[in-house]
């Protein structure tokens, strides 16, 4: 079964005319016996496919019977089938001029002729008349209503094109077979995609995964993922940010719950594990496919045709619970899902921009690419936006992927963008994504967690939170290698917390609220200190997430994350004591700075005591400006000097 759902080109609508009997002057009853013979011959030749001979008879009849509306309509239909759309349009207009109320179908047929000439607004107007005049609300009327809206969108899109300069990713990835569904690693150094290896005389072909690396400004020759590829089809791929957990679609397997199910595999010791069905909670008895994962692989969005859809296929979402199990998926709702098919989702690493394709809303063709962004305040998805022409065309588009920085997009197309000609296969293209359609500027945090005493890699729990809202945006348990990778977006203040039992916690602060900040990747070498008795005094731990009002000892609410971490550590290790040390920069008098540092250290100690820790286990001291760790000549240096430290005492 081919996992890639094609996007249809614009359908030519063949016109079947009814037997018109509405107005006396336009029926065959008004024809003489000789004229009826000419009319019958014209229809006979049309039925035999001899449109030229049919036209000659209709034109001969209309030369003497100039008000015979049905003759104009049938002649117009002949010219439409001959693709003489301008002549067809003129003849339909003539019939409407003679008898505006003869039949509503005239306006529909006229619109079809105008569509073929790219007269979209004229066609939309005539479809509106057809809808108004057609008494029965048939499926055809519903299609006409949708078509009218689409035509107005097409006219607007053609007159307001978005920037688009696609570049083929090259022969190391693209072949004469179809390549599609590209997915990038978080750092953009690897691409995994699906290739349909279709041999001569194959009806469908064999879908497999391939991977290419970006090296020296080029993509290397793609190689098959032999651990995952089978004699069956695999496609529609999603991968976690650290590249160690994947979800993909497979169809018609023995352990499947429906026609196509979602499976997962993990990278262990350099090899992918045997794929496992994601289970009956995620998969249904229907079609489940096209997954996309959040950066921490704890949120999964996918397309499904299960019960509860509003259209043919809808987007559903599921999360991992506290026990790391996937919960029952829920429909993303009517803002995202339409009455048509909504599919091929891609959730960007910013966690708040979703790209997908749909045929249930105004667009250029059957399926167009759309994007939706979460409202920062309500965290709800906003009304999807068509990504625009010429990214969307009447050709084949789908499976859009966007790089971490949001600047470059990748997608599959059957249009040769050098020649403009349609191909018989799909190639992967990349292009610079215009500003409005980009996700939030995003970079990544890459970390390695080790034991500070031995230097060995550690398994650890890593959590990244938005300090201001307290919302958790990333959570992962590292493998034995202690490695983690996560995307973070601009405009927020983050705390990155690393914890492991019998070790002190580690908390980093990443303040990206300054929109002008240069987004560079963060690489962390995190050394967790074992909580064991030692004769030597431990190095101080800088409390990066302790914040005060300017020039004051008043703790800001954002400090609660760090206070809770200290409290938790002291509860888990009842034998330890701590000392809180306050420091300042050298702005102001030395005495004032000393007093301020004392008050700030005391405020932190009191906040921990207020959580329930015995006061005898906590002491505090102020050092003022006497122990700087950076220069006081720059704001960045002074910021480092204004710090709160913690010593662990055994």
List the helices and strands and how they pair.
Elements: H1 33-47, H2 51-64, H3 69-81, H4 85-98, H5 105-116, H6 120-133, H7 139-159, E1 167-168, E2 178-184, E3 190-197, E4 206-215, E5 218-219, E6 223-224, E7 234-239, E8 245-251, E9 260-268, E10 271-272, E11 276-277, E12 288-293, E13 299-304, E14 314-319, E15 330-331, E16 342-347, E17 353-358, E18 368-373, E19 385-386, E20 397-402, E21 408-415, E22 422-432, E23 442-451, E24 461-466, E25 472-477, E26 483-489, E27 493-499, E28 506-511, E29 522-528, E30 541-542, H8 560-572, E31 577-582, H9 590-610, E32 618-622, H10 635-641, E33 644-649
Describe the structure.
With 650 residues, the protein is of the alpha+beta class. The protein folds into four domains: 24-159, Serine Threonine Protein Phosphatase 5, Tetratricopeptide repeat; 167-437, Neuraminidase (6 Propeller); 441-530, Carboxypeptidase-like, regulatory domain (Immunoglobulin-like, Sandwich); 533-650, 60s Ribosomal Protein L30, Chain: A (2-Layer Sandwich). 22% of the residues lie in helices and 29% in strands. It contains ten helices and 33 strands. Strands 2, 3, 4, 5 and 6 form a five-stranded antiparallel beta sheet that branches. Strands 7, 8, 9, 10 and 11 form a five-stranded antiparallel beta sheet that branches. It is elongated and about 115 Å long. The two termini are 65 Å apart. The relative contact order is 0.07.
